[in-house]
Request: fold
Amino acid sequence: MKRKLALWSVLVLAISTLFGTVWAANKLSPIKASLNTDYKYTYNGKQILKNVPAIIYNNMVYVPVYNLTKELGYNVNVTQSETTLSLPEATKPPTKPTEPTDTVTIDKAQIIAINFADHIVTVVPAGKSKDMANQIDLKITPETTIQSSKDKKNYKLSDLNTGINVKVVHSAAQTKSIPPQTVAYSITLL
Reply:
């Protein structure tokens, strides 16, 4: 009895192995490829994916998608049937507001007054006297960028002081008052 049971077990195992091989043969096809363990990957002049082999098949290089996309900064989700890539929220490029075409640039001016309550910075272009006729009132809006020319660090209106030299880009549209008032697009600390 034990002998018959063992014989049947071997027979069932052999049939299931044969069936599994036939079923797998329908899903997979043998290929001839090369594995290059010294393959070098370069991105923007920098070597990436060190110690990641490449499979060469039909003059095409196949790289593990997970390794490559992770190296390039993507979020990767790999399952048996699908690979999903997405950029992390923090690395998505910020949308840069388009700079208006109606601008006036003052390469060097000095801040002579700041009205924090009304968000107005008064400047005088370099080489001109501080007479009211030479002053310009710059309206600071949420879109106005204030930054240092040295380290590109961003600043707020509250960080400004009188006596600072700045480069200013403002709207060409201004009031006819004295001093004229206009909207500041950017203030760069010199």
Summary: Residues 122 and 137 are 4 Å apart (CA to CA).
